[in-house]
Specification:
It is a single chain. This protein has 170 residues and is α+β, with helices and mostly antiparallel strands. It folds into 2 domains: 1-35; 38-169. 38% of the residues lie in helices and 28% in strands. It is built from 4 helices and 11 strands; from the N terminus they run ααββββααβββββββ. Strands 5, 6, 7, 10 and 11 form a 5-stranded antiparallel beta sheet that branches. A hairpin with a 2-residue loop joins strand 5 and strand 6. Mean pLDDT is 82; it is low at 126-135.
Length: 170
């Protein structure tokens, strides 16, 4: 009779351990299957970032010290001061302001080519573009990445349409 009670206790401990192990495996499987795929989130981040850039930002007269959400427009047109301030922000701060874990880069282009507002592009420093050294000419190359989202938006600069090109990649 004494031995039966010990067996019951051992059976209980083993069954609780197996139950906990099963619960842990199920939770891990659910976590992996419910995790959002990379490209849909990256694409959504690209759309949100481009929407922010097509606004005045928060606050509308932001500086690098007061910026909550950076935007490039003032009175419906590209504000070159905001472009310069965006360039002066450290890259990690820029990513934090846009709430994205992905790499980002952006540049402006008109019918004549890439617009060089003291810099050809903003964002990630490697793999997206550079200034060629031929006067104001710039050469921008999309990053070579497995996952890449690209958004192009139109804005007004000096009463002409320009394209804002945004790359988001991993």
């Amino acid at each position: 009779m004494h031995k039966t009670a010990q067996t019951w206790t051992l059976d209980f401990i083993v069954s609780v351990a197996l139950f906990m192990l099963t619960l842990l495996l199920v939770a891990r499987l659910l976590t992996n299957t419910l995790e959002e795929p990379t490209f849909p989130r990256m694409s959504r981040d690209a759309m949100v970032i481009s929407s922010h850039l097509m606004s005045e930002g928060i606050p509308s007269n932001w500086t690098n010290d007061t910026v909550i959400i950076p935007g490039l427009l003032s009175n419906g047109q590209l504000n070159t001061t905001k472009w310069a301030q965006l360039h002066d922000l450290p890259y990690d701060t820029l990513k934090d302001l846009f709430h994205t874990p992905y790499d980002i880069a952006l540049y402006l282009q008109n019918a004549s080519g890439i617009i060089n507002l003291s810099v050809c592009a903003l964002g990630h420093e490697t793999g997206y573009g550079y200034q060629t050294g031929y006067g104001d000419a710039c050469a921008i190359y999309p990053p070579e990445a497995r996952n890449l989202a690209s958004v192009t938006r139109l804005m007004v600069y000096h009463n002409a349409l320009v394209e804002l090109h945004l790359y988001v990649w991993q």
